[in-house]
Amino acid sequence: MLVRVISPVLIGFIFCYIILTAAPTQAARILGFFPTPSKSHMLIHAAAADALASAGHNVTIIGVSNNVYPKSSYKYIHINLGQHLNRHQSTLTSVINESTSFYSNVIKLVKGILDTGNHTLHHPIMRELLRINGEGDFDLVLLGYAMTDYAMGLGAHFRCPIIVSFMIQPTYAIDRMVGNPTETFHGSLLFTNAKEPLTFWGRVSNFMANLFEQWIITPALDLENLKMYNYNFPPDRYPPLEEVRKNVSLVFTNHHFSQGPIRPNVPSLIEIGGIQIKEKPDPLPADIAKILDESKEGAIYFSLGTNIQGSHLTKEKTKIIFNVISKLPYKVLWKWGEQDRPGQAKNIIYKEWLPQDDILAHPNIKLFITHGGMGSVVEAQYHGVPMVGIPLFGDQPSNMANVERSGYGLSVDYLTLTEESLNTAIQEVLNNPKYTKTVRDFSRLYRDRPMTPRQTVVYWTEYVLRHNGAKHMQSPAVHMNRWQLMSLDVIGFLLAILFAVVAVFVKICKLLCCRDKKGKETKLSKTKQKNKLQ
Asked: Are 218 and 191 contacting, i.e. CB atoms less than 8 angstroms apart?
């Protein structure tokens, strides 16, 4: 009888113990601010938020895109910017189809992103959230970063640390944020496509590109960010932006050292390359699964990413792409909207939406035709699928240049695209096994890590929370200005000392010369007088 009474009590005690020990010691209140109109960016930022929510933290996200993880346990607050996002689509069309410089396109895109972020902060939903919440209401801000330094004012508003989520490899803006050393002797993955190892002229080109980024692009962005910050976070109530920037505890960057080039990283720069990739693929929709399972000879997946719609491309280019793909002896899953489809063919299956990560994981996928966005490239690398790229804007040309250099596929230029150039690239990657072998070898390397990206996000976020912002991880370079980092003040001081020493030495020499001259003149005068007396 006693055993019957004790057993349920004991079982209940054990159950409660397991539940309590499995949960984090203290669930943190985390605010994710992702003012990006790009769904591909959201996939990265929200994956980090989802990992934290799954670990038991109370995560609230403010976003302008639709929720990319609707099954997640985080709370998602959607800010609908309406017609403003249509202007972003018009900018994309202009950037893709106009033959303008890379830097001009970057400036257009950045202005659009900053404008979107400003509208997000001004939105009534956001203003109300800031009004009713203040110091102590959030323990951490997770900021989806795209030149959006002004949004670091949220950390000042809630008096809490900031962790930045970045969708590609570190750029100068990220390096500066955490005091990471910036090197110019290897190819800048964002601003040049120079081949590694760099030749002398490659290093000259790379050096000039870095100077342009540091001394022209960055000051211009700083000025815009300062205006937006002072407007949204007035100086009479908030610290200056340059001080708020020092409140960044960590940066999560969607990169992994195996992708290269090898570079030094400070402890507060954490690599989470592939965070959006599921460790175990979800089951495919029945119709897609049937198509791929029955394609024993292989199938092709074609997608230009989450931002590009059929309406962004010219009819001439879509016709070229269709003419090549429709003649291939493979089934092709083509992500394309309901409108403006370039034609019908027996081997092409159009879908407005396709689960890209799960499709690339299927063993019968033989080739991925892609725009070359970092998220897409990483997913292809992870699953060992060779690529043919049609890069359109942003970091896509440099991403595909790196893919080509590494032997994972080939790239064709969109503006000069012809049926011959596209077909030649596709046939080469399909029929030459070296591309599949190379990318599969890299896949094994890329997956070999002590922790998964999601585990890495959870561990380091909780580390920052446990240690009140983890200021001990911060590089002293964060607290130095550009002149100090380049040691220009030290060099100037030493040059001043050298000048003073040289000036004193010259003065002494002149004095000695004058004394010697006077001595000689005196001696000569005495000699002349002596001669006269004689």
From this structure: no
Tens digit of each residue's pLDDT (9 = 90 or more) over 345-379: 999 999 988 999 999 999 999 999 999 988 899 99
Contact (Cβ atoms closer than 8 angstroms) between residue 425 and residue 327: no
Q: Please tell me the least confidently modeled range out of 107-111, 326-330, 403-407, 499-503.
A: 107-111
Write out the H or E segment, with its range, that includes residue 178.
Answer: helix 172-178
The Cα–Cα gap between 318 and 320 comes to: 5
**Which CATH number is associated with domain 286-447?**
3.40.50.2000
Residues 63, 64, 69, 70: is their CA dihedral positive or negative? positive
Residue 117 CA to residue 64 CA, distance in Å, equals 9
Residues 96-155: pLDDT tens digits? 666 666 666 666 677 777 778 888 888 899 999 999 988 889 999 999 998 889 999 999
Q: Are 146 and 115 in contact (CB under 8 A)?
A: no
Q: Which CA distances in Å does 100 have to 53, 65, 97, 303, 320? A: 43, 28, 9, 24, 22
- Determine the average pLDDT of the residues in 476-487: 83
Task: Tell me if 417 sits within 8 A of 390, measured CB to CB.
Answer: yes
pLDDT at 385 over 80: yes
- Top mean pLDDT of 88-97, 189-198, 395-404, 465-474 is at 465-474
Reported as type and span, the H/E element at residue 32 is: strand 29-34
For 124-202, where are the E strands, in sequence order?
Answer: 140-144, 162-166
Say if CB 319 and CB 417 are below 8 A apart: no
Yes or no: is domain 29-277+452-484 CATH 3.40.50.10490?
no
Neighbouring residues of 300: CB distance < 8 A, sequence distance ≥ 6 = 325, 328, 330, 331, 332, 333, 365, 366, 367, 368, 369
The one-letter code for the residue type at 484 is Q
All CATH 3.40.50.2000 domain ranges of the chain, comma separated, are: 29-277+452-484, 286-447
- Quick one: DSSP state of residue 300? E
Cβ neighbours of residue 118 under 8 Å, at least 6 residues apart?
Answer: 150, 228, 232
Q: Please tell me the pTM assigned to this model.
A: 0.83
Which residue, among 430, 369, 379, 439, has the nearest Cα to 403 in the 3D structure? 439
What's the distance, Cα to Cα, between the start and end of the chain in Å? 147
